[in-house]
Amino acid sequence: MEKVASAHPIARGLRFTWHAERDRLLAEAHARPSTPLEAPVVAIRLANVSGQEAADADRSHMAVLCARFGERMPDRRARWWALEGPGWSLRWERHTEFSSWTLFCPPPTATDPRSPFERLPVDWLSSFPSDVLVATMLELRRDDTGDLSPPMASDGVQIGAQVLEGAARIFTDFRADDSGMTRFRLLLHSRDAALAGRLALMLLEIETYRMMALLAFPLAGEATVQLRSIEAEAGNLASKLAAEEGVEADRALLSRLITLSGEAEGLSARTTFRFAAANAYHDLVRDRVASLREVKISGVQTIEEFMDRRLAPAMRTCNSVADREREVIARIARAGAMLDTRIKVADEETSAALLSSMNQRADASLRLQRTVEGLSVAAISYYSLMLLSYPMKAVEHVDAGFDATMALGIGAPVIAIFVWLTLRAIRRRIEGH
């Protein structure tokens, strides 16, 4: 890892060698500060899901806007950038798999009736590098009336609460209006601009992370269809384990289990990231909602209650599908292990029978070898005596007192014993090697 020499001596004569990533890690904690807000103001949050590898495209899109207004463009490693325009400001933030674009501007007035989107170039807004998932508008204004009754939504549905020990009231319905925007109304009692900025950022993040978490829900429905088919076939194959139809049938069954395991693993690979990301986004939503410290307004559902009734069941569905994927993979693995064990046992029985047959053949060969060895002793002894008879008959012819027949008779057992001992020594030497 590259080291960078310290340019700031801590004490006389002392210099540290800093880790190459130290400055970037320190800056990361301050990379996305909230923007202090003075009421009245409108905040627009857009988020496009571009994927983990598309940060450059989103950064380039921000650079195009900066160049159009003659401002400094983000560098190639920037993950956060702010652009100040005439009467508005825009913040771009790069996250793991999406980018968020937050516009702050005054609300339309009689002297300046422009909507927030009319303050940005239409062609730039229409050319986002990827599809927009989140589009929400937050209206921040003062609330000095002290009236605790909620402003009613057009359809009578209202979600909201007092937050941060009565510093503000928030209202929404988490539904898209005719323009496709979800809306928040933030009524601020406090005059703390920094608090207003933090509160607005929390609400925008709640909506952003809520939608990002819900991305997993359609995938869970699609995965359920394929998972149901895999579970049914896994159960069918597992039921066949009870029937022993021979090694070849077991091998065919094991082959099908391996194929099915590949299908299950492939399904899990396609869904694991999205389900894990959904849980992470859900945790962020719950953290942001908890940070609001909601106090219930009579007759109004709190954001926490809404998330518990609407978002949490979707997340439980995703987790259930993930659990089923893991379970079916484990079930297939267990069935495959049992089947593989049965095949190995059958192979071992076949091998044992083969070894037994080989041992029987070896015993027969050994007995035959010993029989041949005995015949060899007799044959060699016979031929040795025949060869020895010629010189002995010659001696008998020269010496009338020498009885060749008697000598051969006496020498026969000696020669037989000698031949037997010699062959046995040769056999032992061979067996020893």
Write the layout of secondary structure elements.
Blueprint: E1 3-5, E2 17-19, H1 22-28, E3 41-49, H2 55-68, E4 80-85, E5 88-94, E6 98-105, H3 122-125, E7 132-142, E8 159-163, E9 168-172, E10 182-188, H4 193-214, H5 216-239, H6 247-292, H7 303-398, H8 404-432
Parallel strand pairs: 7-10
Antiparallel strand pairs: 1-2, 3-6, 3-7, 4-5, 5-6, 8-9, 9-10
Helix pairs in contact: 4-6, 5-6, 5-7, 6-7, 7-8
Number of strands: 10
- Name the strands of the widest sheet in spatial order: 4-5-6-3-7-10-9-8
Q: Tell me, rounded to a whole number, the average pLDDT.
A: 85
Number of helices: 8
Shape: elongated
Model regions low in confidence, pLDDT < 50 over at least 5 residues: 1-7
Quick summary:
With about 425 residues, the protein is an alpha+beta fold. The chain is built from eight helices and ten strands.
